[in-house]
């Protein structure tokens, strides 16, 4: 049976714990893992542009001694009419040990997994899941909290279109955290409550309880699609502004998957103030998240492809 | 040529009949119904224990020919129909070329005659080339035999034009406008019902309002003009309420529901199952209950399949790329018998009324009755026969059903068209011509 990482929905606390533990060990002693995936070939097929995710997978592969090849498909072969499956089959026929895929269609890996017999790793499928982002966020959170049990996580932004949210909420729930999603109703359907989490359309009401404030990136085109009056309106209601900093609980973590639209999700003034504050008051851990990306992706690659590899138990 | 069908329970709501009786067919028409009928020189079939009903009439079918013969042809589609107990069907005009001129009407009629299996009534396009810009050539289509007009999957967005069409067609008194109710701006390229599953799977949702807004518009245009309107494949509780309102006002409005909307919810898309990708989308359990209740109350008049065949490789794509549509001709009767009739949700009589009597009446075509003199279009059902929905055994070219593998109890076992056997024990008499 092939081992995949398609998403975190249904993944057990045990599996999450093992990946976290391995990431911790790699972080402690990278050298020990230098040849873990020697001779393995990992291919990244990105049908959507990506800088940091692709780069951190590439570094992760290098850390473990694997070969890494990248096909920037958003510009090339699909234009020529080569079908998605043809592309995937061509690449797998050339002999790869794992495929890392990013694609704009939600669920595309669920379909592909029936067609190929190499491990598939989801680097973001549409608005569905982005499991490695959620895993690296967990890694960051564990750097600051010993346990996520009863930790209050407030995620703010375009919930509707966020694949980060659709991975994070499952993992956070499994690990005992409490989640509140915040955003304008046009980007946060009431039905999210059916997942057993809280929702709010007013940031000011939920900020005071947050142990972690997770800001999501707002895409410019949401405004053009009539989902927002303007980015300025968004910032007034949902941006982390200097005025809102007084609502924050001491010791709060501020996270963002990047790249940050400074002035939209968080204002430059607020960011500057937060960074100047002592750790006991607040911490911005965006850089920690980026660094965690490589560690966690290396842990995942080793977990799926290494000698003591595992299936993700769901 | 005489045929005597003996001993079945005849269920014919058109003459309030539900009793064990013999039925005599002479020269292709029903010659008599009663107990202990004797006829000299008649071939006799013993149907004891079976149910004999007017052949089913499906007013929403895509036969795909001309233009998309890889998906289905008139021959394979009508074979699928009689395999499913369906003797008459109306086929939608989204062919290539579309049914917006009498040549295509004639072509479909000719192909249907050659297949010789079921009565086929082409629905004409509502606008030229189905583009929603100009009226179609109604008088020419009418002269060719068309009595129903629709742009089906591509509804006329322009309310002004639609209003003029409703008025224009008043002069063609015995015609019907069939509306696929969808506000496409509101549907916004959605792929599934907007709700729990769209949120879980991260798929763009189609809100129920995309249907109800359009239903309201169509009903108000029917009210404004008095033109007879039929609402295709209703999927929402809200639409049922609008139709209820229209009927209370006495407006000339009828409506249909598909077996898949009656039997499934959006949970069927779990795992990005493209076999359940259909437009309008499978909705919530509340919607499903409202549709069932609407059907029982007669707010929704008819059942129709919206049989929408696609090639296997077309449906075997990811959820975004795969086309909308499910097939239904060979699954409708077994699934409805199993899930609704046997469970007491709908009586057999109500099923026959909704899937035969009323559909024939709304279309204004023969069938839907076994009154003496009516064509002997008949379906015989074995309510105890058990089976499994096996797509590889379909007569349809397509396999895109969300019911694959489902166990069924209740099968059509004999289909007659104009007194001729077209299907017996599941085997279609392909190649026989009238």
How would you sum up this structure, described in words?
The complex is a heterodimer of chains A (314) and B (434). Chain A is of the alpha/beta class. Chain A has two domains: 13-131 and 292-305, Rossmann fold (3-Layer(aba) Sandwich); 132-289, Rossmann fold. Helix content of chain A is 36%, strand content 15%. In chain A, strands 7-6-5-8-9-10 form a six-stranded parallel sheet, sandwiched between helices. In chain A, strand 1, helix 2 (52-63) and strand 2 form a beta-alpha-beta unit. In chain A, helix 1 (13-28) crosses helix 11. The longest helix of chain A has 20 residues, at 286-305. Chain B is of the alpha/beta class and 434 residues long. Chain B has two domains: 2-52 and 375-428, Urease, subunit C, domain 1 (Roll); 55-363, TIM Barrel (Alpha-Beta Barrel), CATH 3.20.20.140. Chain B is 29% helix and 23% strand. Chain B has 13 helices and 19 strands. In chain B, the strands form four sheets. In chain B, strands 1, 2, 3, 4, 5, 16, 17, 18 and 19 form a nine-stranded mixed sheet that branches. Chain B has a five-stranded parallel sheet with strand order 9-10-13-14-15. In chain B, strand 13 (229-231), helix 8 (237-248) and strand 14 form a beta-alpha-beta unit. The A-B interface holds A 9, 84, 105-108, 110-112, 125-129, 160, 163, 166, 189, 191-192, 194-195 and B 194-196, 199-204, 271-272, 317-321.
């Amino acid at each position: 049976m092939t081992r995949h990482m398609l998403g975190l929905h249904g993944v057990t606390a045990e599996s999450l714990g093992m990946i976290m533990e391995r990431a911790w060990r790699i972080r402690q002693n990278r050298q020990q893992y230098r040849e873990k995936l020697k001779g393995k070939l990992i291919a990244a097929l990105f049908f959507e542009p990506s800088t940091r995710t692709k780069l951190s997978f590439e570094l992760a592969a290098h850390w473990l001694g694997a070969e890494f090849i990248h096909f920037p498909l958003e510009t090339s072969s699909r234009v020529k009419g080569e079908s998605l499956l043809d592309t995937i089959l061509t690449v797998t026929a050339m002999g790869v040990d794992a495929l890392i895929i990013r694609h704009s269609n939600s669920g595309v890996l669920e379909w592909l997994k029936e067609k190929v017999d190499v491990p598939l790793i989801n680097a973001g499928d549409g608005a569905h899941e982005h499991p490695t982002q959620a895993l690296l966020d967990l890694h960051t959170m564990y750097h600051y909290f010993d346990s996520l049990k009863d930790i209050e996580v407030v995620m703010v932004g375009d919930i509707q279109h966020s694949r980060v949210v659709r991975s994070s909420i499952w993992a956070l729930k499994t690990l005992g955290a409490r989640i509140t999603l915040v955003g304008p109703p046009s980007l946060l359907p009431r039905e999210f409550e059916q997942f057993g989490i809280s929702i709010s359309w007013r940031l000011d009401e939920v900020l005071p309880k947050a142990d972690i404030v997770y800001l999501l990136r707002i895409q410019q085109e949401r405004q053009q699609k009539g989902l927002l009056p303007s980015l300025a309106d968004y910032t007034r209601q949902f941006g982390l502004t200097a005025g809102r900093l007084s609502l924050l609980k001491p010791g709060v973590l501020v996270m963002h998957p990047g790249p940050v639209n400074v002035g939209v999700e968080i204002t430059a003034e607020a960011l500057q103030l937060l960074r100047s504050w002592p750790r006991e008051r607040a911490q911005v851990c965006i850089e920690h998240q980026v660094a965690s990306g490589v560690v966690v992706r290396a842990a995942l690659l080793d977990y799926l492809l290494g000698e003591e590899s595992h299936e993700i138990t769901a | 040529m005489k045929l005597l069908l003996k001993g079945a329970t005849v269920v014919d709501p058109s003459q309030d009949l539900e009793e064990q009786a013999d039925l005599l067919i002479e020269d292709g028409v029903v010659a008599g119904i009663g107990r202990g009928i004797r006829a000299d020189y008649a071939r006799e079939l013993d149907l004891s224990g079976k149910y004999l009903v007017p052949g089913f009439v499906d007013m929403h079918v895509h036969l795909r020919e001309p233009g998309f013969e890889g998906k289905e042809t008139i021959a394979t589609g009508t074979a699928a129909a009689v395999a499913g107990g369906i003797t008459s069907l109306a086929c939608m005009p989204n062919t290539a070329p579309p049914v917006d001129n009498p040549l295509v009407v004639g072509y479909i009629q000719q192909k249907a005659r050659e297949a010789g299996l079921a009565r086929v009534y082409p629905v004409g396009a509502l606008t030229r080339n189905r583009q929603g810009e100009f009226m179609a050539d109604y008088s020419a289509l009418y002269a060719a035999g068309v009595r129903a007009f629709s742009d089906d999957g591509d509804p006329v967005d322009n309310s002004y034009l639609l209003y003029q069409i409703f008025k224009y067609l008043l002069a063609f008194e015995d015609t019907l406008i069939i509306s696929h109710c969808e506000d496409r701006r509101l549907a916004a390229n959605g792929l599934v019902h907007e709700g729990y599953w769209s949120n879980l799977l991260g798929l763009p949702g189609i809100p129920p309002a995309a249907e109800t807004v359009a239903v309201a518009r169509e009903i108000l245009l029917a009210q404004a003009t008095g033109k007879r309107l039929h609402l295709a494949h209703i999927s929402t509780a809200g639409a049922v309420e609008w139709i209820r309102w229209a009927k209370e006002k006495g407006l000339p409005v009828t409506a249909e529901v598909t077996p898949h909307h009656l039997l499934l919810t959006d949970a069927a898309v779990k795992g990005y199952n493209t076999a359940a990708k259909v437009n309008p989308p499978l909705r919530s359990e509340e919607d499903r209950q409202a549709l069932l209740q609407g059907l029982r109350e007669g707010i929704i008049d008819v059942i129709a399949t919206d049989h929408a065949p696609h090639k296997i490789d077309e449906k075997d794509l990811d959820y975004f790329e795969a086309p909308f549509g499910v097939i239904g001709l060979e699954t409708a009767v077994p699934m409805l018998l199993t899930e609704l009739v046997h469970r007491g949700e709908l009586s057999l009589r109500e099923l026959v009324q909704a899937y035969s009597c009323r559909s024939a009446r709304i279309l204004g075509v023969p069938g839907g009755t076994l009154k003496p003199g009516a064509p002997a279009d008949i379906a015989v059902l074995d309510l105890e026969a058990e089976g499994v929905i096996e797509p590889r055994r379909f007569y349809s070219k397509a396999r895109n059903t969300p019911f694959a593998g489902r166990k069924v109890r209740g099968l059509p076992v004999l289909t007659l068209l104009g007194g001729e056997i077209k299907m017996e024990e599941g085997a279609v008499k392909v190649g026989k011509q009238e």
